[in-house]
Amino acid sequence: MIKIAISGTHGVGKSTLANRLIKTLSKRFDPKTELLLVPEYIRSNLRKDIGEQQTEDATLFYIRKAMNTLRIVDGMPSLRVAVFDRPWFDTAIYYLAARAMKDGTTKVPKRRYLEDKIISLFAKAQLAEAIATYKHYDIIIFNRLPKSQYDRRPEDDGVRLQSIEFRNLVNDFFCSLYTPYLKQRSELLPRTRIVINANPLGCRCSVDAFMRNLVGNEILPVIC
After folding, report:
1. What's the whole-model pTM score?
2. Which residues contact 148 (CB under 8 A, 6 or more apart)?
3. Out of 38, 44, 59, 158, which residue is the most buried by the measure of CB atoms under 10 Å away?
4. Worst-scoring range by mean pLDDT, 154-158, 174-178, 199-203, 218-222?
């Protein structure tokens, strides 16, 4: 089985891309038995203490929920591809960005700092032993918000407070986490391929071009 997760800040088309990816892959795989779309865990377990007010308790709650979902998916032998609307550690990035906002700093930490904090949260969620052995995802697609869109107000998705500053800070944290993986591996994602979608809010033709490249060069050759 190949597990694909779509990551990034809110309002950058992750759910749209996940659904279109499933639709594209359904041309080759049986959508009833071989494909699975796993919805965002926050939407299905909504709490008030998320977003800019996200607490550590909420973060640990969502980490446990997401990891439990991964275990369930791994127990489905007929699946060929599972597409996750967010990997489990997205919620940790939101928490770290929320804490930075609360402290009044917009300085973006380096990748190693973010990894250490994420692994620390994983340990607090009493899942520390799994971090070294569990292959969480094969491919992560990072929907990166372009700098040209930083002044664009995000739509209210009914889940998180939608300030531009917080949305952009979360995107910067994700950039700090993912971009170095294009050159080197590290402890958090030692066997995961990172794919950057640099224009997630582009026109339909640009999204279609990304999908063709993704399916043609990144996913199906791995599976087949």
Report:
1. 0.86
2. none
3. 59
4. 218-222
Q: What is the pLDDT of residues 56-98, one digit of tens each?
A: 999 998 888 888 888 899 899 999 999 999 988 899 999 999 9
Query: Alpha-carbon torsion 183, 83, 98, 162, what sign?
Result: positive
What residues make up the domain containing 193?
A: 2-223
Helix (H/G/I), strand (E/B), else coil: 155: coil
Q: How many domains does the chain have?
A: 1
Backbone phi, psi, residue 221, to 5° = -60, -30
Compute the distance between CA of residue 79 and CA of residue 66 in angstroms, rounded to an integer: 18
CATH number of the domain that 163 lies in? 3.40.50.300
Q: Which two tokens stand for residue 175?
A: 């950039």
